[in-house]
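Morning run. Coffee first, then this:
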Amino acid sequence: MNSLWLVDVDGLHGANPRQLTKTGGEYAALWKTSWSPDGERLAFWAGGADGTADVYVIDADGRNERDISAAGMAQDQWWPAWSPDGTRIAFVQTDPAAIVVVDPDGSNPVRFDGPPVRADPMTNCGVVVWSPDGKRLMAVSTGLEGDPSTDVLAVFDLPGTGHRTTIPADNLCSFSWQRLAP
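And here it is:
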């Protein structure tokens, strides 16, 4: 199926399937869905009309589907992630690989500079993770101290200051933030 569906869960069997997104030519794949914190919207990436992968947002009822990829970007955009407060969406772009943060309507793009973010759509290595307080982003980057054969876990401060912390982390594709009790 080349569309997103919403299905009620009633124990062992799904009920009341509803198609959320349109089908057909421009959506070759629908990947990495991300629910907004309030459960009202869904962000996902799919093939865009121009042949690149784009990030979309759709209301939970299937209305208002829109491409929110940063305007003027001819690159692929992948792995959308909502901020904890639902006011921003972060995603990975290619060529050059970087993190971009936009408002849910695609406005106010901020690009994070630093070591290139690993952008691989076939793995979770390109995923972006928000800190629980929404003040930082974490992703796997390549090129520790100019060496493109190494990976680092990069923590970027908001808003797009370029300030980052890097931690050597070869072959890392899975990571998360953890709140620790005081």
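Residues 5-128 form a domain with the Neuraminidase fold (CATH 2.120.10.30). Good start to the day.
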